[in-house]
């Protein structure tokens, strides 16, 4: 396997163009080669702060976590930040265009520095907020999978690690709802959040899963993605999906392995369920898919995306 890209946030000038600046924008530095951040960590204080910020997640002395909701498309957006790092670097997963102002206000109120606006996949039911965020906060980088064949500042793939401060997300490929679906999982390590947290996009929903009837969807692929990439995580790993239509907010791997009415079946049973969902096409699909192929910015320049160091 190729060496995983280590995307390390460093304080650099904001720039949104020029391919020659790519090495300035993402600095592939091993965390071990950097001096420790100049911050005195008082475990009790930082832990209690995190607890106050954290909604239904596990503990980490460094992680600030928020789950946000966009009600028209029933989409969850997630805000994560390393609040022990002096810059408080943050990222958003699956922001929606309609709630970008809310999300940016929250980022500012909490004193965070947003560095990545990430997509789990090319959504069909709403326009991503990642492009709009870039126009409002020009230093932010849009992120999506290379397999999605979309345009973004950063095209990522399985095995990459997305660093924000000393915390990171591991990238797992979970195709099946769309070809380019990714699941982001918090890091495995002593200073990373415990239990781990998996941001599954539409691959795995709570007691459900993403449909497989368009955008390169495949029930065979989705079944294998969930079983090989998500159900192999520790059972206490939290599941945070991109949507919920039933009022759920969080689940765990163990809970879904026991109670997911689709994915507890064998593959043939799963395929049969997926073939008979009889869902109507998302109302926004004809607008959302082309817009999301350019991370929500129809006029994004033609410059090539930065490649991730391997
Ligand atoms: N009614 C909504 C779309 C609902 C829908 O199709 N949701 C997708 C995820 S967004 S493409 C899905 O995979 N649902 C699975 C399920 O079992 O509900 C609209 O018109 O936007």
Protein described:
By secondary structure, this protein is α/β, with parallel strands linked by helices. The protein has a single domain (63-287), classed as Metallo-beta-lactamase, Chain A (4-Layer Sandwich), CATH 3.60.15. The chain has 8 helices and 15 strands. The protein has helices spanning 22-25, 43-53, 100-109, 130-136, 219-230, 253-259, 267-275, 285-292; strands spanning 6-7, 63-70, 75-82, 89-93, 113-118, 141-145, 154-156, 161-164, 167-173, 182-186, 197-201, 204-205, 208-209, 238-241, 251-252. The strands form 3 sheets. Strands 1-8-9-10-11-14-15 form a 7-stranded mixed β-sheet. Strands 2-3-4-5-6-7 form a 6-stranded mixed β-sheet. Strand 12 (204-205) and strand 13 form a beta hairpin. Helix 5 (219-230) packs across helix 7 (267-275). The termini are close together. Residues 1-58 and 300-304 have low confidence and may be disordered. The ligand N[C@@H](CCC(=O)N[C@@H](CSS)C(=O)NCC(=O)O)C(=O)O is lined by residues 73, 124-125, 202, 208, 210-211, 243, 245, 277, 279, 282-284.
Quaternary structure state of the chains depicted? single chain
Named CATH architecture: 4-Layer Sandwich
What is the overall shape?
globular
Percent of residues in beta strands? 15-25%
Indicate the radius of gyration in whole angstroms: 18 Å
Predict the CATH topology. Answer: Metallo-beta-lactamase, Chain A
Specify the structural class: alpha/beta
Largest beta-sheet characterization: 7 strands, mixed
The total strand number stands at 15
